[in-house]
Amino acid sequence: MLEPYLRTGRGPALLVETDAEGYAIEASRTDNGPNLRVAPGQIQEVTTASLDGAPGTVRNPGHLADLQDEAYFRTRLPDGSTDTDRHYVSGPVFGLKTGDGGALMFYGLTARLSLAPPPGGTFELGTPATTPPARR
């Protein structure tokens, strides 16, 4: 459920806000403070819609495995084939307040990549990890 490539090397690390005892403060799922583009309780839905092509405020980080798989197969499918990548909400949302008034959110998404041959046709797929070099 964790996508390890979401943080880039740009800018300082997020500073998580803590209470008087040093414990991280949970971000409210309904808070939509001035530094939040999306309310934490809506982050999964907004992210799935954005990744599925709807205009949105959540950017594709460029390292999601399903999107890389879609690009890989798209170049290898026969003309007339289709590929569909859809994202779905999965699991709970957890968040921590950050010192700049934002939130560091942890949540899960699921993706399903569907490949279909041209109408009336078939195709054979292989993946680099399982296909012998002579058949690639």
Describe the structure.
By secondary structure, this protein is an alpha+beta fold. It has one domain (15-117). It is built from 2 helices and 2 strands. The two termini are 31 Å apart. 7% of the residues are buried. Mean pLDDT is 81; it is low at 1-7.
Descriptors:
136 residues; 2 strands; two-stranded antiparallel sheet
Describe the secondary-structure layout.
Elements: H1 43-51, H2 65-74, E1 82-97, E2 103-116
Antiparallel strand pairs: 1-2
Radius of gyration: 20 Å
The major pleated sheet works out as: 2 strands, antiparallel
The helix count comes to 2
Low-confidence runs (pLDDT<50, min 5 residues)? Answer: 1-7
Mean residue pLDDT: 81
The outline comes out as elongated
State the end-to-end distance. 31 Å
Strand content: 15-25%
Number of domains: 1
Number of strands: 2
Read across the widest sheet, the strand sequence of neighbours is 1-2
Q: What proportion of the residues is helical, as a percent range?
A: 10-25%
SS-based structural class? alpha+beta
What's this entry about, in short?
This protein is of the alpha+beta class. The protein is built from 2 helices and 2 strands; from the N terminus they run H-H-E-E. Strand 1 and strand 2 (103-116) form a beta hairpin.
